[in-house]
Amino acid sequence: MSSSNKRPPPTKLELIKLKRSLVVAKSVYKILEDKRDVLLKRIEEMIDEAGQARTDMSEPLSDAYRSLFNAYLTLGSNKLESIAHTTPSHLDIDVNVKVIVDVRIPSFTINEKKLGLNYGFADSNSNLDQATKMMRLVLPRILKAAEYENTILGLARGLEKTQRLINALEYVIMPDYQESIKFISSILEEREREDFARLKHVKKVIQSR
After folding, report:
1. Domains, the chain, ranges and CATH?
2. 209 residues of the chain, pLDDT tens digit each
């Protein structure tokens, strides 16, 4: 209800309704402030965890690329590409959804039941075996890092939405309620003064008779 639009009816019932609405708005405002603080704290925690997750995957990923490069040098591109064609085109990933401060966040887990070497030892060498080992070690860590990054984005969107609601309450809704309450209160007070003056006049007329 904007003060620039239609004025509320200046009645006692409307005044009571507006005062109750203002109390509710203040309560919601406090809840949203608390939610914003929790979201900020969780984002800070997730940023730290995301940094650690990136660190955890950095070394094995570097080892995997180094070993893969050495395998390329020793086996040659044709042999390496032939082995690569035996690699499954996708991984089975279990996706679960967790809720953090009313924000739904997907969580990923690799289903490792079917993982295993899919090439013969005679066709490879220790460099390729090491690259395979390191890549399978690092894949869950890459997913975990991606999960943290996605969680940060989700929480940031939740924080932005919460802040918009806080701003709407603080700068639009509650000021409108307060202005309407002030408007109705002033009219009702003026009516009471007029009624009192009329009663006083009537009393004087009655007494003069």
Report:
1. 20-161 (1.10.287.3240)
2. 444 457 888 899 999 999 999 999 999 999 999 999 999 999 999 999 999 999 998 888 898 899 889 888 888 888 878 777 777 666 778 888 888 888 888 888 877 655 555 555 556 678 888 888 888 888 888 888 989 999 999 999 999 999 999 999 999 999 999 999 999 999 988 887 776 677 776 777 677 76
SS (H, E, C) the chain: CCCCCCCCCCCHHHHHHHHHHHHHHHHHHHHHHHHHHHHHHHHHHHHHHHHHHHHHHHHHHHHHHHHHHHHHHHHCHHHHHHHHCCCCCCCCEEEEEEEECCEEEEEEEECCCCCCCCCCHHHCCHHHHHHHHHHHHHHHHHHHHHHHHHHHHHHHHHHHHHHHHHHHHHHHHHHHHHHHHHHHHHHHHHHHHHHHHHHHHHHHHHHHC
pTM, to two decimals: 0.73
